[in-house]
Amino acid sequence: MTRGAGRDSLWRDPRFVRCWASSAVSQFGDRVSEVAVPLIAIGVLDASAGQVAWLTALAWAPNLLALLLGAWVDGRAHKRRLLVVTDLVRAVVLLSLPLAYLWGALTLGQLYAVALLTGLAGVVAGCAWMPLFARLVPSSSYVDANSKFSAARSASFIAGPAAGGGLVQALGAPVAVIADAVSFLVSALLLNRIAVDEPAPAARTGAALPALLRDAREGLAFVVRQPVLRAALGCSTTVNFFTFLAGTGMVVLFADRELGLSPGAIGLTLGIGAGGSLVGALTAPRVSRRIGVGRSITIGAVLFPAPFALAAIAGGPTWAAAGLLGAAYFLVGLGVMWFDVNLNSLQAVVTPDALRSRVVGAYSTVNYGIRPLGALAGGALATAFGLRATLVTVAVGGVLSVLWLLPSPIPGIRSLDTGPWHGTAEPPSRTGESGSPGHPARTD
Asked: For residue 331, what is the enclosing H or E element?
């Protein structure tokens, strides 16, 4: 790709197209699993709300190791190869579910193990993605590239849940998971065909473990010192904790047991609601140009969690319950994309090359590490006070995340060309090698 090329050139770069296609097909498979895996627990293994919460918690628990994994990935020369390997690992692990089901040996323990292993592979992939993209996307196209990846992700939320619900209804939840395993295989094939020049990392000095710990500490220290990253991390962590009180598994449980929706209706409702994510992803560049990158992030931080209060009052006839739940998720998707697309691009600009995987690791340790705690707290809250009260708590607590942004430099940032970059180790470059879009695959 020509450095500094305009955003129209992204579709003409075959390497970018393969990366985008890899992410798109993988995201579609994930949406199937997000419906199928909780329904394996609920329908096949008769799991309780607490057990469903543990399933979500274990999927995100490996992010607690992201600080060290990011430092380890930074020391590896071939980030693309790591992405291919992690895709293959997740495909094999997921295929164990339908095999165990066909042999009559499927257990909740195996479901937990699959969630943990796929989550671990996903963390490694997330740390490897950012530096790879620094070699593929010019900095002038960050917001546009993030918009394209987020649009694919949003489209997967429209088609994926509906397809997942249909596959579960037709074939059963364990067999439906095969679709996600196949998506990982396709993703690995596409990534393997990308030719990219990956420079060798700087050699570490000293013993391996102390050097790894030192590198991990440097990544965390940079995030804490940098004013944009510090405020973004506080906001993201807060909103993630509260929204994970009602993660996908808990929402499926709410739709199944409180609203009485069928698997097909659940998938269709969530798919229609996800149209908000597609609209948000496609409009994020325009919104940021009109009102500024910082204000787009701030508005998204409020609009993301607030509609959970709307979902809490869903009820009545099936069509009304499904419609209100879908409307709430439409607004959630709109908010999260305005928040993510712009924030991911801003983070990419303020992060220097040498620290990319370490910054991702440090950020993920806190931001994603809070998610299993939120899921467990959500299970306890739902057990004690009910699913509707949990959804209201999500809305109120999540909106408070904006308090991290208000005193920070973020709301005042109009564009990525200007801003308070004095806190970074290097100024934002226009060369296409100073940053990357946020990881568009399965860490978000």
From this structure: helix 318-350
Residue entry with tokens 């939840």: 173
Predicted confidence (pLDDT) per residue in 169-191, tens digit: 777 778 888 888 899 999 999 98
DSSP 256: I
Q: Phi and psi dihedrals of 13, rounded to 5? A: -95, 110
Q: How far apart are CA 95 and CA 114, in angstroms?
A: 10
Half-sphere exposure of 284 (CA within 13 A, CB side): 35
Any idea what DSSP says for residue 310?
H
CA distance 403 to 330: 24
The structure's pTM equals: 0.69
Pairwise CA distance, residues 103 & 105, whole Å: 5
CA torsion 324→329→334→339, rounded to 10°? Answer: 140
CATH architecture of structural domain 7-194+206-423: Up-down Bundle (1.20)
Residue pair 4/140 in contact (Cβ under 8 Å)? The answer is yes
Number of C-alpha atoms within 13 angstroms, CB side, residue 20?
20
Q: How far apart are CA 161 and CA 181, in angstroms?
A: 16
Amino acid at 70: G
First to last CA, the chain: 26
pLDDT digits (tens, 9 = 90+) for 222-278: 888 889 999 999 999 999 999 888 876 677 788 887 788 887 777 777 777 678 888
CB atoms within 10 A of CB 263: 24
Which sequence spans correspond to the domains of the chain? 7-194+206-423
DSSP 183-229: HHHHHHHHHHT-----PPPPPP-S-HHHHHHHHHHHHHHHHHHSHHH
User: Which secondary-structure segment (H or E) carries 18?
Assistant: helix 14-39
- What are the tokens at 43? 């329908």
Whether the Cβ atoms of residue 78 and residue 8 lie closer than 8 Å to each other: no
Residue 242 amino acid letter: F
